[in-house]
Amino acid sequence: MGNYVLTLGESLIDVVPSENGPVGHPGGSALTTSVGLGRLGREVFFGTWFGTDAGGQMIRKHLDASHVKILPGSDNAPKTTTASVSFDAKGTASYTFDLCIDIPPIPGNLSPLAVHTGSLGAFLPDAGPKILDYVRSLAGPTITFDPNIRPAVMGSHAQTVRIAEAYVETADVVKVSSEDLEHLYPGRSIWESARAWSDAGTALVLLTLGADGAAAITPGAEPVFSAKPSGSVADTIGAGDTFMAATIHWLWEDGLLGQPLDLDAQQCSDLLAFASRAAAITVSRVGGDPPWLAELEFKS
Length: 300
Prior knowledge:
- It is built from nine helices and 13 strands.
- By secondary structure, the protein is an alpha/beta fold.
- The protein has a single domain (5-295), classed as Ribokinase (UDP-N-acetylmuramoyl-L-alanine:D-glutamate ligase, 3-Layer(aba) Sandwich).
- Strands 5-4-1-8-9-10-11-12-13 form a nine-stranded mixed β-sheet, with helices on both faces.
């Protein structure tokens, strides 16, 4: 396997309110995870879908600046997806989308160390089946998945659950928010839902809990918890995606990608601490703006 990660999914422009009117920022769950990895010094290839319009040019410039390599054909979209963002009193974002989501053909000569997907790209009908078929075809790379549920655009609840569970069946690592699990499995505790995914074969389920921190669930073990986050919050855009990128980076640093995962409690604690520090930097600034490696003191 090569020494790089392949990410597959959406890129878009987040249109964020400001004192001077709406401002566009490159975003999307898969894009922000890709940028996070690139800024942490990792080689990453990104298969996505954007246009040659002003938004697409902004996305390309953003990816290039963060050392993300774009798969050929990713700029063939007729338009670039946009997401108009609004915030509640706690700074939590909600989105209204103008969608154009797909992926280009995936080159047959790629041999990534890990493959990451999730959110709109993984669930919507043009890109989703292609991505799911691809990850199901793989043997060897670590598969990571973040559902990052957007109920307004992901179809029926039953369909969303079915697709999420199909990806979970393929994944070695799943990062999921408490809100995602509450949406997917209403009436069931988030802990029961996370444990069910772990017991079904996912080696590491990372449950993000907002102001209550995060937890790591591994098969047959008690959950491991991170400390509650501290620091200022500008907005929450990209927090979970940064957490995901930092997780992949930490596993990479410890030589754990591309092989069966079996983390002990101390490893889980160290991983959570690192990923939480990275996410805290992102929420302290406007838009999905993950930290560079120089902003973090990484210790494996």
